[in-house]
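Format notes (please read before filing issues)

Several people have asked whether sequences and C-alpha cells are stored in separate files. They are not. Every record keeps both together, in the order shown below: the sequence lines, then the C-alpha cell lines. Line labels are part of the format and must not be stripped during preprocessing.
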Amino acid sequence: MATWIQSLPGKQPTNRSGSLDLFWSGLQTETNVPQHLSQQPLEPVPPFETVQNAAQIKEMETETATRWFDMHQQANGAFDVLAGLYEVPNGRAVRRFLVRRRPLRGLLFDAYPRIMKIFGERVNTELKLIEDMDDNLERLRVSIVSNRDDARQALERFDEEWWLDHVQRAEGLLDFVLRRE
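Then the structure lines:
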C-alpha cells in the first residue's frame, strides 16, 4: 500500500475531536490507498453530452450557423425598417450597436409614431451613435429636427406622454433631443 500525505487548507484546528473541523483544519492527513490504485493514471471525465460521430458535429455546427444567420438577418431586416423611419448617417456603426442591444430596437419602433403624432408628419428624425468621452460609453441619440415655434413644448409633451414611462428600458443608452435647422 502507498501512503499519500496531503496538507489541506482551512481554519485553525478546533478542540472537537472526531468532528469534520479537524479534517479542514490545515493539519496533515494520511490516506492509505491500495498500491494497485495509486499507480493507475487518472482517466478524464467524459463531458455530459458526448458527440457520437462527425455527422453529429456537422449537424451541430450547421444549427449554430443557421441560428447566427437568422439572428443577424432579423437584425438587418429590423435595421432596414428603422433606416426608413430615421435618417441614419453612420448606419454601419448604428447597426452593429443595435445587433447587441435588441430592446433598443423595440423602443425606436415604439417612439417613432409618438414623435409623428406630437411633432407632425413632416418632422425629420435622425438616429446617431455617439460616444460619450467622459465615461467611454456608446449610446444612441435621436435628434428630432423641427423648426416649429412650439418645438420645445412638443418635446416636453413627448417626454411626459411616452418617454418617461419607457426610459428605464433604454438603460441609459438612448436619448431624444431637439435640433433646429
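For reference, the curators noted about this record: The chain has two domains: 2-38, 54-179. The first helix runs from residue 20 to 23.
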